[in-house]
Write a structure and sequence with these properties.
The complex is a heterotrimer of chains A (268), B (311) and C (348). Chain A is 32% helix and 27% strand. In chain A, strands 6-7-8-3-9-10 form a six-stranded mixed sheet, sandwiched between helices. In chain A, strands 2-1-4-5 form a four-stranded antiparallel sheet, with helices on one face. In chain A, strand 1 and strand 2 form a beta hairpin. In chain A, helix 3 runs parallel beside helix 5. In chain B, strands 6, 7, 8, 9, 10 and 11 form a six-stranded mixed sheet that branches. In chain B, strands 3-2-1-4-5 form a five-stranded parallel sheet, sandwiched between helices. In chain B, helix 5 packs antiparallel against helix 6 and helix 6 runs parallel beside helix 11. Chain B is built from eleven helices and eleven strands. By secondary structure, chain B is of the alpha/beta class. Chain B has two domains: 121 residues, Rossmann fold, CATH 3.40.50; 104 residues, Nitrogenase molybdenum iron protein domain (Rossmann fold, 3-Layer(aba) Sandwich), CATH 3.40.50. Chain C has one domain: ABC transporter involved in vitamin B12 uptake, BtuC (Orthogonal Bundle). Chain C has 15 helices and two strands. In chain C, helix 2 runs antiparallel to helix 4 and helix 4 runs antiparallel to helix 12. The longest helix of chain C is centred in the N-terminal third of the chain and has 34 residues. The chains are: A alpha/beta (268), B alpha/beta (311), C mainly alpha (348). Chains A and C meet through helix 2, strand 6, helix 3 and helix 4 of A and helix 1, helix 2, helix 10 and helix 11 of C.
């Protein structure tokens, strides 16, 4: 269980987050939804333990993040940042194996277990056939899946001495991807969640949030506007509050997911 | 009959007057044709002009040129830059009628020629060319007598040194121009051409790198020096004066090459002074100093008094 | 959750592969480096007899062949190996730190500081020695360390963490500043001092003795210890600080270790042999093209190849125009230009 209690974050003199509280259950799939500049990325970094809040606390399984040793925390939580720029030409397998970093001492070389987990991660993300390819030659969707596989490999563990939640945090996983890839990633996320991994996504994409997140946290200008199950939280008045846009909230005829359709009142 | 004599007398007088006038004009033109406002960017040329007493015609000298010892008229001469940075503006302001430049000053030469200012191009050459340059400058500045006297004395003095060392065994000598302080690295030695080499040969030494004909100063490795096995090492230093402890420390640096005969026999010398660096009348004294180091038995005391106007 | 045996597929590419690659790196590259260092002193313009070199009955002060071998050539080979290895390794580490394959060991101003230190002694002439150590390499090292301190302080000014952009900017600034000062003091110098100053900047490995190597060795050992810790963290760091942090890397510590180790190696190398260029960028490039990007392989391979490269260049420097010696930095530069041209053509 990953929780944030009344968290604020100040960057230089600007207060980016104020009084944010949210909770992610062990099998949860929660989205942090908000327009650009609302503080989503910062919140995700704080939740992933990459930065420390100015006030308030964040706990994983009731233990403050700052008390976790760095590598132990990395074995429990993996963050996939928004963009990946590679300065050098690594292969897909090398990148996925890098996810095993927190599991290995400094001078150790990856062992058979690590390789098995890498293989599993590649298989889970449908990128096993790309293992020997150079990362730079992949398409946008393939790259994103490989990076997710790397995060996945990071979370795999056979070590029962460290039971507890495993959390995957994704920052804008579908931004700058074509529609087909967006759908791929969306279904991958659902699949991983079904495997038992708690997932926290930050996104400005209403459709994605509505389609896959069971719970939502609406963030506007650093404050929580609303939090709760998707169908309860995503109402027309909330959409208007958050984005300043009129919308029609309904159900997808085929999948029964919440569907938000913006209405352009200027054209009336 | 009186008219006849009168006519002859008149004609003779007139002819004489005309002749005198012509000679006078001729003399005056000769005076006018030798430059009176000389600028020299080359230290050795400046030095020679002082030595032959032509400094009254000098209006501008190079930044690093030196006046003779004891001459404190340095404020009278405008500094116009040197090899790397000739100040053309200043040169033009001085309205020279002769400018002495290095061969590498191609642009500057073109500028001056376009402005109609006569140019003399200087190039570092061998020992023999120094006397030639002295005579040449003497001719141009109307100081032929003085120039001839110095040039002749140079010829005779150098010949005298050659005579003294003639037939004697020539020690293999390494003449070091420059190296890294307190290390045997970046060692530059005199090659087989140039006035340093000529001075060494005149003084009765054999340049260990005499077969290097590509440049007058060449960088050599410690292997090359070990292989060359010089009997004498002479280091030239630009400073006017070196402290004893500095000389001792720098001399000790050579010890590690203990197979060198120069090291084993303690024949490592340091020479200082501009006369080793500027190819002018001072080379006479410099060559004698070298000869004294190479053939001490023959050159007990300094034989040659310093040339006038030389640092 | 796994269908077809992916383990089999991946393992075929996996563990044995990596272990094997590491072993062959050390064997192949290390062996070549060792061989080149031992063979280089045998090559040279002066014919020497090996039998005479190792003839213990001849006193050393009478044995010219032995002095040529042990004073002129062998120290050069050692110095070349150390300097070449240090510069190549520093290049790899800085390229990873700055996430830019065009970074060089000289990018962050260390070499400019070292050059300024050397210039000051060469041109002002004092002091000549400090506690028995020649002043030129010592001042060079002091200059290098000063540059490191300045650049690091500047990079830490703004906020927590070490911003690579600020690091780069600080390095470039320092390079320009120090170059300007160097130009100025060269202007003040007389002909002979300028001569030596300019010549020093072209690099020279003719140490003619073991003392300079002995002094550089502890510094290089410390740098090497730093380098030993870095490879896996560097791999992650090149994905981006965020990625690295997310995987559990202590980003600030890794950056600091990388910066200081690389700077120490560069400072020691430049004090020993002068600022010899192109090794820090050519060698890592070639190595990555042949063995991939994993720093666990790239770092040691580059160090060994850097040693080989510089020793061979130095053999050329002292042999090609004997008895005249060419500056070794000129030789590396002559190889560097065409190398980049080839890279450019290749990338089209």
């Amino acid at each position: 269980m990953l929780r944030a209690d009344n968290v604020s974050f100040r960057y230089d003199t600007a207060e980016v987050l104020h009084g944010v509280s949210l909770g992610l259950s062990n099998a949860g799939l929660t989205g942090v939804l908000g327009p650009n500049g609302s503080g989503k990325t910062t919140l995700l970094r704080l939740m992933g333990g990459l930065q420390t809040p100015s006030t308030g606390r964040i706990t994983l399984d009731d233990r403050d993040l700052s008390t976790y040793p760095r590598r132990m925390l990395a074995r429990r939580m993996a963050t996939v940042p928004q963009e990946t720029y590679l300065a050098f030409d690594y292969s897909v397998l090398e990148i996925v194996l890098m996810g095993r970093y927190p599991h290995l001492p400094t001078f150790a070389i990856e062992g058979p277990t690590d390789l098995r987990y890498a293989a599993d991660a590649l298989a889970a993300t449908g990128t096993l056939n790309l293992a020997t390819r150079s990362f730079a030659t992949l398409s946008g969707g393939e790259k994103q899946r490989v990076v997710i596989a790397s995060a996945l490999a990071q979370l795999y563990t056979a070590d029962e001495t460290e039971p507890g939640s495993h959390v995957l945090l994704l920052d804008e996983p579908t931004a700058s991807l074509d529609l087909a890839y967006q759908l791929e990633i969306a279904s991958l996320i659902r699949k991983l969640n079904a495997m038992g991994i708690a997932i926290l996504i930050s996104t400005h994409d209403l459709t994605l949030a509505a389609a896959i997140c069971r719970d939502l946290v609406l963030l506007r200008e650093g404050r929580v506007l609303a939090t709760g199950p998707t169908q309860d939280v995503l109402t027309e008045s909330m959409v208007k509050s958050l984005y300043g846009v009129d919308a029609l909230v309904t159900r997808h005829p085929a999948t029964d997911h919440v569907l938000v359709i913006p209405v352009d009142s200027a054209n009336e | 009959m009186a008219t006849h004599t009168q006519s002859i007398g008149t004609i003779t007088t007139c002819s004489a007057v005309v002749a005198i006038l012509v000679m006078a004009i001729g003399l005056l033109s000769a005076q006018n044709s030798s430059p009176k406002r000389i600028i020299s960017l080359v230290p050795s040329v400046t030095q020679i002009l002082f030595a032959i007493g032509a400094e009254s015609r000098l209006v501008g000298i190079g930044s690093f040129d030196r006046l003779p010892d004891g001459d404190d008229r340095t404020a009278e001469f405008v500094r116009v830059g040197g090899l790397l940075d000739p100040d053309m503006e200043r040169i033009f302001t001085l309205r020279p009628d002769l400018v002495v430049l290095y061969k590498s000053h191609v642009d500057q030469r073109q500028q001056l020629e376009r402005a109609g200012i006569p140019v003399l191009v200087y190039e570092h050459a061998g020992l023999d060319d120094i006397a030639k340059t002295i005579r040449d400058l003497g001719a141009r500045s109307g100081r032929t007598v003085q120039a001839e006297s110095i040039a002749t004395r140079m010829d005779t003095d150098l010949a005298a040194i050659r005579a003294k060392v003639d037939g004697r065994p020539r020690p293999r000598t390494l003449l070091v121009f420059s190296r890294e302080p307190m290390a045997l690295r970046n060692i530059y030695a005199s090659g087989g051409i140039g006035f340093l080499h000529d001075m060494l040969e005149t003084a009765g030494g054999e340049n260990v790198f005499g077969e290097v004909r590509s440049e007058n100063i060449a960088q050599v490795s410690s292997e090359a020096i070990l292989a060359a096995a010089p009997d004498v090492i002479i280091e030239i230093r630009f400073d006017e004066y070196l402290r004893e402890d500095v000389i001792d420390d720098e001399r000790d640096v050579w010890r590690r090459l203990s197979t060198l005969p120069a090291v084993r026999n303690g024949r490592i010398h340091f020479v200082t002074g501009h006369r080793f660096v500027v190819p002018g009348p001072g080379v006479i004294e410099a060559t004698e100093e070298l000869a004294r180091m190479l053939h001490p038995e023959v050159f007990a005391t300094p034989q040659i008094r310093p040339a006038p106007g030389v640092g | 959750m796994t269908e077809v045996n992916p383990v089999g597929t991946v393992t075929a590419l996996g563990v044995e592969n990596l272990r094997w690659r590491l072993l062959t790196t050390y064997a192949l590259f290390g062996g070549t480096a060792l061989a080149v260092c031992l063979l280089a002193p045998l090559v040279g313009p002066t014919p020497i007899s090996l039998r005479q070199v190792f003839d213990g009955s001849i006193p050393f002060t009478d044995n010219v062949d032995a002095q040529i071998f042990f004073i002129a050539r062998f120290p050069r080979a050692l110095a070349g190996a150390l300097v070449g290895g240090a510069l190549a390794a520093a290049g790899v580490v800085l390229q990873a730190l700055l996430r830019n394959p065009l970074a060089t060991p000289f990018t962050l101003g260390v070499s400019a500081g070292a050059s300024l230190g050397a210039m000051v002694v060469i041109i002002f002439g004092v002091p000549l020695t400090v506690l028995g150590v020649p002043a030129v390499p010592l001042a060079s090292l002091v200059g290098a360390l000063a540059a490191v301190v300045i650049v690091y302080s500047l990079a830490r000014l703004r906020r927590q963490g070490l911003s690579t952009n600020v690091l780069l900017l600080a390095g470039v600034t320092l390079n320009s500043l120090f170059s300007a000062v160097i130009m100025f003091i060269q202007y003040l110098a007389d002909f002979s001092q300028n001569f030596q100053a300019i010549r020093w900047l072209m690099g020279n490995l003719d140490v003619s003795g073991y003392q300079p190597i002995v002094w550089a060795l502890p510094l290089l050992a410390v740098a090497a210890a730093g380098f030993a810790w870095l490879p896996r963290s560097l791999n992650l760091l090149t994905l981006g600080s965020e990625h690295a942090a997310a995987r559990g890397v202590d980003v600030l510590r890794t950056q600091r270790l990388a910066f200081f180790s690389a700077s120490l190696a560069t400072g020691a190398a430049v004090s020993l042999g002068g600022p010899i260029g192109f090794i820090g960028i050519i060698v890592p490039h070639i190595v990555r093209l042949t063995v991939g990007a994993d720093h666990r392989v790239v770092l040691p391979a580059s160090a060994f190849l850097g040693a080989v490269f510089l020793v061979i260049c130095d053999v050329g420097a002292r042999t090609l125009m004997a008895p005249v010696e060419l500056p070794v930095g000129v030789i590396t530069a002559m190889l560097g230009g065409p190398f980049f041209l080839w890279l450019l053509i290749r990338s089209r």
